[in-house]
Task: structure prediction
Amino acid sequence: MLAEFEDIRYLAGKREALEITTDEMQKNLAKLKQQDYSLRHAINLHSENLSRYNDLANIGFGSKELRRLLQTILEIMNSNGIDHWLAGETQ
Result:
């Protein structure tokens, strides 16, 4: 009878440990799913951007030209007193 009681206590302890481990693993899985979603979203955004850059490169408008265009836009904004942080916002 005492041995059965010890077995029950041992198994109850094992069950509690497994429940704790399962809970931690479920939390970790949820975190990994969120990271997966975020990374897939970032990949999609970068894929869209890459497609646009490729379109521009195909017509001879590469990174050098983009930098020059950006510098020109910044100079125009600066000469007109436009804050470059506000320039991209919709009026």
The helical segments are 2-58, 63-79. The first helix runs from residue 2 to 58. The chain has a mean pLDDT of 91.
